[in-house]
Design brief:
The protein has about 500 residues and is mainly alpha-helical. It contains 14 helices and 8 strands.
C-alpha cells in the first residue's frame, strides 16, 4: 500500500514537472515570435523607404527627359514657323511678278493679233492677184495640184512596190526554188490511175453462166451482199464490177475469185464467201495502215486512224491513189521541215493525215479538211497537227507553222504533171473563165491561158496602158483570180505592152 502511494506521488510529480516545462517552453516561443515580428516590420519599413526613394529618382529623371524633348519640339516648331513665313513672303512676291508678267503678255498678244490680221489680209490680197493672173480659183488650183500629186504618188508607190518585189524575189526565190526542187527530186512516186470500174477476167462463157445462175439469182445475191453492180455483157472473157466505193469493188473481186476457184456458186455460199472476204479485207486494211506508219516512222497513233490510213489504199482523188498521195505529202512535208529547221516527225504525221476526212465512214455535210481536223481532235492528235489538217485548203485559219508546209506539200503532190485527172469540161471552163476575167479590164486587147492554165498572158494597148499601169494591172488580175477562182498550184500573170511603128517605102 505504501508502494502504491509512492508510485502515485511520483506520477503526479512527473506530470506536474512536464506541465511546468511546457508552460516555460511556450513563454519562450512567444518571446521569440514577437522579436521576429518586430524585426520583419522594421525591415519592411526600410524596404518601403528605399523603394519610395528609387521611385522619386526615376520620376525626376523621366520628367527631366520629357522637359528636354518638349523644349526641342518647341524649338523645331519655331524654326518651321520662321520657314513658312519666308515661303509665304516668297509666294506673295512671285504672285505679284506673275500678275505683272500676265499684264505684259496681254499687251504682247494684242500686238500679235493685230500682226496676224494684217498678214491674213495681205495673203488674201496676194491670192486674189494670183487668181487674176492664173485665170482660176484657189480651189481649182488646189484640185489640179492634188490630182497631179496623186498620180505622182501612185507611180512612185508602184515603182517602190516593184523594187521591193524584185528585191524579195532575188532574196527568196532562190531559196524557195531550192527547197521545192530538192523536195520534188527526193520524192519519187508512181502515177496511179483509178476509176469506178474493175474488170474481172473469166476463162469461158460457162463460168459466166454459173456466176449469173438460174434466172440471175446468183448475180443478184452477189450484188446484194457486196453493194456492187455486176455488168455481164457481150465482152468476151470479162465481167465488169461497177461501184464508186473501191473497197466494195475489191470485196466483190476477191469473192468472185474464190467462188470461181471453189466452183460452188449459189446464194448461201456467196454470202459466206463475201462475209469471209470482208473480214480478210478489214485485216488487210489494218495491216496496210500499220505498215504505212512503220515505213514513215510514225508511232503512237490511234488504231482508228491507222484503219483510216489503210482504207486510203482503196480510195482515189482525181484518179490519184489517196494512200500514195498521202505518203508523198508526208515525205514532202518532212523534207521541207528539215530544210526549215522544224519538227520533221510532226510534219510527216500531219502530211500523212491531211486527207483523212476523205475516208471517214461517217460523211456529214462538211469539207474533208474540216472533217479530218475533227477526227484528229477526236483521236487526241496534237493541236498543231489538227490545225494543219483543217487549214491545208485554207478553210480554217493557220495557227501552226506546220499548216503552210502541209498546204504546199499537198499542192506539190496534186499539181505535178500526170498526178491527177480532171474532167475536160471543167478544165476548159476554168481556162475560159481566166481569159474572160482578164479581158474585162479596160485597155486589154487579148488574153490567153497557156501552160494548162498555169500562166495567163494579157496583151494591152500601148496607147491606153502605160508601163506603170501594166504593173498595176498584173497585180489586180492576180488578186481577182486568187479571190474568185479555184485552181491547182499557182497562176502566173504576164502583161505584155508593145509599141509598133510601121512605115512604107515607095
Amino acid at each position: 500500500m505504501a508502494f502504491l502511494y509512492i508510485l502515485t506521488g511520483l506520477v503526479i510529480g512527473a506530470a506536474a514537472t512536464a506541465a511546468i516545462l511546457i508552460i516555460l517552453r511556450r513563454r519562450q516561443l512567444n518571446g521569440r515570435k514577437e522579436d521576429i515580428i518586430l524585426k520583419a516590420e522594421a525591415e519592411a519599413e526600410n524596404i518601403k523607404k528605399e523603394r519610395i526613394l528609387q521611385a522619386k529618382e526615376k520620376y525626376f529623371q523621366l520628367k527631366s527627359e520629357y522637359d528636354k524633348n518638349v523644349a526641342e519640339k518647341i524649338a523645331q516648331l519655331k524654326d518651321a514657323e520662321i520657314t513658312l513665313k519666308q515661303e509665304f513672303a516668297n509666294l506673295d512676291r512671285r504672285m505679284k511678278e506673275a500678275e505683272e508678267a500676265k499684264a505684259g503678255c496681254t499687251a504682247k498678244q494684242e500686238v500679235l493679233d493685230r500682226k496676224i490680221q494684217e498678214c491674213d489680209r495681205k495673203i488674201a490680197e496676194t491670192n486674189k492677184q494670183i487668181e487674176s493672173i492664173a485665170g482660176m480659183s484657189a480651189a481649182q488650183a488646189k484640185n489640179i495640184l492634188m490630182e497631179n500629186m496623186k498620180a505622182e504618188a501612185r507611180t512612185e508607190a508602184q515603182a517602190y512596190i516593184n523594187d521591193t518585189m524584185d528585191e524579195a524575189r532575188l532574196n527568196a526565190a532562190k531559196e524557195a526554188k531550192r527547197i521545192v526542187i530538192t523536195t520534188i527530186q527526193r520524192t519519187a512516186t508512181e502515177t496511179a490511175i483509178e476509176n469506178a470500174v474493175t474488170t474481172f477476167p473469166i476463162e469461158n462463157d460457162e463460168i459466166k453462166g454459173r456466176i449469173i445462175g438460174r434466172e440471175g439469182r446468183n448475180i443478184r445475191a452477189l450484188e446484194a451482199a457486196t453493194g456492187v453492180e455486176i455488168v455481164v455483157d457481150d465482152t468476151p472473157d470479162a465481167i465488169l464490177l461497177s461501184a464508186f466505193d473501191p473497197v466494195r469493188r475489191e470485196v466483190a473481186r476477191l469473192a468472185l475469185h474464190q467462188l470461181v476457184i471453189d466452183g460452188r456458186i449459189h446464194p448461201a455460199r456467196i454470202e459466206e464467201v463475201v462475209s469471209k472476204v470482208q473480214k480478210q479485207l478489214e485485216e488487210e486494211i489494218l495491216e496496210t495502215g500499220k505498215r504505212t506508219c512503220i515505213d514513215l516512222g510514225i508511232h503512237g497513233m490511234s488504231m482508228e486512224l491507222v484503219k483510216m490510213i489503210g482504207r486510203m489504199k482503196y480510195r482515189s482523188s482525181y484518179g490519184q491513189n489517196l494512200l500514195q498521195h498521202s505518203r508523198e505529202v508526208a515525205n514532202i512535208c518532212a523534207i521541207m521541215a528539215a530544210e526549215l529547221g522544224l519538227n520533221v516527225k510532226a510534219a510527216k504525221r500531219a502530211g500523212l493525215l491531211h486527207d483523212i476526212g476523205k475516208v471517214s465512214e461517217i460523211e456529214p455535210d462538211l469539207p474533208h479538211a474540216i472533217l479530218g481536223m475533227k477526227l484528229a481532235e477526236q483521236y487526241k492528235e496534237r493541236p498543231e497537227i489538227c490545225n494543219a489538217i483543217g487549214a491545208h485548203h485554207e478553210e480554217v485559219g493557220m495557227t501552226s507553222v506546220l499548216s503552210p508546209i502541209v498546204m504546199v506539200g499537198d499542192a506539190i503532190s496534186g499539181a505535178r504533171p500526170g498526178a491527177r485527172r480532171e474532167v475536160i469540161e471543167s478544165y476548159i471552163k476554168r481556162l475560159k473563165g481566166m481569159e474572160d476575167l482578164a479581158a474585162a479590164y479596160p485597155g486589154v486587147t487579148k488574153s490567153y491561158a497557156i501552160q494548162a492554165g498555169r500562166e495567163l498572158r494579157v496583151i494591152v494597148g500601148a496607147e491606153e496602158v502605160s508601163d506603170e499601169q501594166a504593173a498595176v494591172l498584173s497585180s489586180d488580175i492576180a488578186q481577182k483570180i486568187q479571190n474568185e477562182m479555184t485552181y491547182p498550184g499557182q497562176v502566173k500573170i504576164t502583161v505584155i505592152r508593145e509599141t509598133r511603128s510601121v512605115a512604107y517605102a515607095k
